[in-house]
Design brief:
The complex is a heterodimer of chains A (360) and B (269). Chain A contains 15 helices and four strands. Chain A has one domain: Orthogonal Bundle (ABC transporter involved in vitamin B12 uptake, BtuC). Chain A is mostly helical. Chain B is of the alpha/beta class and 269 residues long. Helix content of chain B is 36%, strand content 23%. Chain B contains eleven helices and ten strands. Chain B starts with a helix and ends with a helix. Classes of the chains: A mainly alpha (360), B alpha/beta (269).
Chain lengths: 360, 269
Amino acid sequence: MIIRAMKDDTGGQILLAVLLAAVLLVPILSLAVPDSSPLHLSTYTVTLLGKYLCYALLAVAVDLVWGYLGILSLGHGAFFALGGYAMGMYLMRQIGDRGVYGDPVLPDFMVFLDWKELPWFWQGFDMFWFAALMALLAPGVLAYLFGYLAFRSRVTGVYLSIITQALTYALMLAFFRNEMGFGGNNGLTDFKDLLGFDLQSDATRAGLFVASALALGLGYLACRIIVTSRLGRVTVAIRDAESRTRFIGYRVEQIKAAIFTFSAMLAGLAGALYVPQVGIINPSEFSPINSIEIVIWVAVGGRATLYGAAVGALMVNYGKSLFTAVFPDAWLFALGGLFVLVTLLLPRGLTGLLRQRSAG
Amino acid sequence: MGGQVARWQYLNPGKTLAETLNISHKTLLYVEGVTVSFDGFRALNDLSFYVDLGELRCVIGPNGAGKTTMMDVVTGKTRPDSGYVFFGQTINLLELDEPRIAQAGIGRKFQKPTVFESHSVFENLELAMAGDKRVWPTLRARLSGEQRDRIDEVLGIVGLREQARGLAGALSHGQKQWLEIGMLLMQDPLLLLVDEPVAGMTHQEMDRTAELLRSLAGRHSVVVVEHDMDFVRSIAKRVTVLHQGAVLAEGSMDDVQQDPRVVEVYLGE
């Protein structure tokens, strides 16, 4: 199945090979090579790379729905953030009595708000498996409900994009409220450890990098298996001629909801891996601009290729790291300019340019 | 009653909609007293129309007579204001949506050919093939040897064997029409609704299409909507003339052409 999915996908093969090499090399370069060596990777770099990989997985998830299903989701940041919050809640519970207020059960912000007991929706998040499950289920259930309603009403195109944008905006406003019980404006932070491993240690950071790389690799494979199956061909058929697909007997709204849900779960997984690496999750992750940025990564890399989305996410974010160090205020202009340029000059993205060159 | 059976049938995976079809009276499609209004304009006006099992029927009529609207109603695209539409004696089509109507055994070819342009011709036929079209079975689906043979057979019938691996988007207009008819055949429907199959075709292509449609009647009931009178004459045994949303005349091509009301509608007062 995997061989069939990866056959004829040179870009994907390269991506997976690079990921495999990174999984083997990065921990060695970070942990075993002495600090003085020029080959040594600092923990800062490892964390930065791990963060990029989470973004890449998020971009692959968006490409699955945008490139193959034709749904321009401007709300995937919401699914990413929900996965992040699920992981953040676990990390908060792991703090235990080491918080500022020393309450053995309640996270600091709840003590500060003078709450007496843990709200019901925080139950179970002291267990890793439960939090991990929720990091997938919370975005998945939301995406399914949203998708079921939107697709059943046959909302498509620009209108659907606007609703996805409204979804993430509404969630941002809700999570800003202290009464919601997710730490309000400040979000969740001050994490100590994950499964007993100190989050500040180099080894844990290397481990998180490896986990992110594996998640990207497996997520990529899963998406390839979908797009190379008959379901994937139906998905493209829906993108190109939705009503025709309906008239040959496919339940279009169910297929759309299924793919959309799967994509949201991948985004949730990316968010769950992202949060322990950056050490904080707050409502700004839901902000509409984040979701738009993801779409730009995919457009820059090249739509409907999957690997292009990953490449786009890595390159744009690397560019962002460089650019914001020099002109911190001008990034949004640069990003907007990049989007316009790519749309006008490279409709198939950077990887499309490479494919063209190798073909011609 | 029959409608209830059809509506809940999908909950019972043991029996498909197509299997509940009852055609013991030899009539496949019943359209009775159907009225459709768009902003006060009556596109269909108390239309009654029946299609027998295995027949090849042509529907003609001036622009705006309601030919395409009639197909929209049968395939679930448009809901009528009043009337009944039954497939066989038991399946109430007004209670089903487009995919379920397709699964029940009604295939449709649109006026403007719509094929999946970024898929190959072979893949277009594969996607249209009858089978379990829910999400999970579609993800797991693999082509069996038998299914490949069937696709190859249909490629032969519509004359696209040589283009099988090429993109459907690269086909000529006429070839796209044939591919769409091929996609209909893959669905293995009892009833084929074919909207203007020869629009934009050369004479040669028209002859081939006529031959194709004639060969399909018998095993399938075929309803063809067409403007081209020569084409209609070449294939039709029975012709239905629609005018202002209702049946004006029905019978053989010669009978219909001699009917003074038809002459009036086509030639003006």
